[in-house]
Amino acid sequence: MKRFARSPWRVVAVSIAFLLLQVLTASAQTPTPSPSPTNPCPKELTPGQSLIPVPVLGSGSDHKLRGTIILSDEQEWMPTRVPAAAPSDNSRSQCQPQYVRTFREYGARSTMAAAPYGTYARGQYALPRPGPTLRARVGDLVQLTFINQINTLHFGDSIDRGETGRDGGCDSSNAGYPGADKFPDCFHGSSTGNLHFHGTHTSPNTTADNVFIEVRPSLRDGDKPVVTPQSVAKSFDSFFTKCEVELSKSVLREWPTRWSDLPEDYTDDQKKYLKEYDTQMEKTYGPGIRKLWPINEAQIKQGAWPQYYIGAFPFCYRLPEYKETDWPPKSTDMHRGGAGTGEMQMDPTADRVLMMGQSPGTHWYHAHKHGSTALNVANGMTGAFIIEGKYDDDLNTWYGADWTRSAQVLVINQLGVTPNLVRGGAGQDKGPDFSINGQIKPVIQMRPGEVQMWRIVNTSGRAGALFLGPPKGFEWKQIAQDGVQLDETNYQKKENLNKQFLLAAGNRADLLVKAPTAPCATPADCSVIVKNEVDPLDLATANPLTLLTINVTGTAVDPTSNNAKFIPNAPKFPLFLADIEDNEVKGTRVLTFRSQVNNNEAPAVQHMIDGKRFDGEVGAVVLLNQAEEWKVVNETYGGRIVSHPFHIHINPFQIVETFSPNDPLIDPKTGKPPIDPKTGKPYIDPQTKQVAVKYAFHPRNLAPGQCYLNPDDPSSWKPCGTPPAKKHLIWWDVFSIPSGYAPTTIENGQKVPLKNSKGEPIRVPGYFKMRSRFVDYTGFYVLHCHILAHEDRGMMTIVEVAPSLTPYSHH
């Protein structure tokens, strides 16, 4: 990894010392010097070691998930692949201690301690691991104290450069970054933190799933952070008590709504800290800096929720439970707005009923500060969020009390400390090897014949993991996707047994896995194999990678017992997850994702939605409590082909149509690529002069399974065949947009674009159509590409859900 030039700045000590300086990039760290280029990893990071469970923060009998998450830093053994080419089982890992940003549960390790703690401590350094697993139940209150105690001296210039104006607000390196990237769509601000509760159906406002919040590191007194869990405990306890009272008034109650709803001692401290922060920034960087307190002050005067905080923030919201006995629910007024939309009403949600509840299942949380999501997630700032409900109850009825709590929680990540572009990389690799709970190729223990539940979360910031099927002698059956259980029809489908499946970045899957009745003959027979995938076209050259192995040992499970069988019927499907039918759809729109080289600025790729990078403007306005159908388009072509994983916050969605123009040619009769009987080889397309793919631009002499697209009529660019029924659809909150197809042909020995009758290059975008219910909560949230470097660099926009009725009467 390249080193970065240090500036002559020195840290200025004041009564509350401020940690800003040393001009390193925010996104890279200089590794601790090592005696040789190759550094062996600790035993626990070598393949074949037992999986280490992640600590849990869970709700209690009071139905409250109370706890503290500390954003801090520590030196960890960070693995890198040798060689650095595409991953395979022929590669090996080396480790170096690196400073990384971490999410840790309070009480496990004081951030003032000198060394790592517990199972993950390995001498002076720690093993990498995700944040604590959160566990709650549908209907519970979530009350989390979030503390930012990052010591910025460990990361150099990681304070948000957008406040200082240096380098246009972006991180920089001697490898040429930021290039054409411009603030705010560039890597920056990696010491700032927040939390996105991925998969929750809750408010996007104030102290709930609000990704616009930015919590800067605590000011410091010498080497100690000023803001600590103890310093805010009294204030936050009073806030959580009042929040519980307010949120108990109705299921859709949103509170707080104003800055004044927070405890006065906390707001007074925040005002003081922010002013001190601004003062120190001005002393350090001179006039013209972007001060934070005046921005907050203006937002407060406008009645908006202020954006910036120092050291601490309280999260308080409810996981709403759907209790109606039918769907849709009956309501006197389902469309009036939520918090902050009707100041003349004491509770503008009191006369509404819940349209959708929180789906019980496997969800997750992660850092979501725009500009640093890729780096922070790669550092390990992710964690599983298990939300229990009737889904668990039904599984436990079959398998035994609390059986789901013994499930394997597998948090996949691609660990790293420097984005490709910052270190001068071309950005074309699929990222580092996958880890699970911070370990490389760990071992899971299973008894012969046992059925286990695996909750798998792909928290990687770049690559998808294509699971190639169960190991030899094993069986598996998927039971949930993206934290939403499968209905009976999908659970029982023949293809649901032992299938391949893709977990794109951000996807989750719950699996029931059944071990064979005897140990495996070799470790390879017990290996779960995946391939890194950013686009399906990667798979032709992607090497298989061992994700984990299974050790089948111990006393065999009674083959006649329920614990040796897949549950015969899926858990009861929630009423509020009924299919979105045609007559429910009230609006449509098109969103277009595109990555393209901008030759006018620099040889850098620009990542855009609807032709522009994120600028803070609203990109989509929808009305509360109605369903819409969106066509989500991918106009990314050529050498930078990628299936962008689309993610939208707050509400899940269903896919009703998918068009993947790069699909391979498959004979529908044989399920295999067809063979030309004239040559005995695969068909060659007469136009492209290459092996034929599914879609052709000539109507005659089509190969078996091939479909015609009119090159002059984009309205014909859609999937061929009979459309599938829009019934028993799976719910998602991440779905990869199929990449676009730019066909080529050969002329004079050169590959050139295939053109239509007008002489224009043919470019066929991929797309999917999705339906979602924008229900229950008004406010602002985001949708974006879940390749997080794309999101940081501009592939994000804001969704506004607006009330469809005003508080005024005209009759």
Summarize the structure.
By secondary structure, this protein is mainly β. The chain has seven helices and 43 strands. Among the domains are: 139 residues, Sandwich (Immunoglobulin-like); 227 residues, Immunoglobulin-like (Sandwich).
| Main sheet characteristics | 6 strands, mixed
Adjacency order of strands in the biggest sheet: 17-16-19-24-21-22
- What is the CATH architecture assignment of one domain? Sandwich
The overall strand count is 43
Approximate shape: globular
Please state the oligomeric state of the protein chains shown.
Answer: single chain
General description of the model:
The protein is mainly beta. Among the domains are: 435-573, Immunoglobulin-like (Sandwich); 576-802, Cupredoxins -  blue copper proteins (Immunoglobulin-like), CATH 2.60.40.420. The strands form twelve sheets. The protein has a six-stranded mixed beta sheet, with no helix packed on it. Strand 21 and strand 22 (484-485) form a beta hairpin. Mean pLDDT is 88; it is low at 1-37, 108-116 and 332-346.
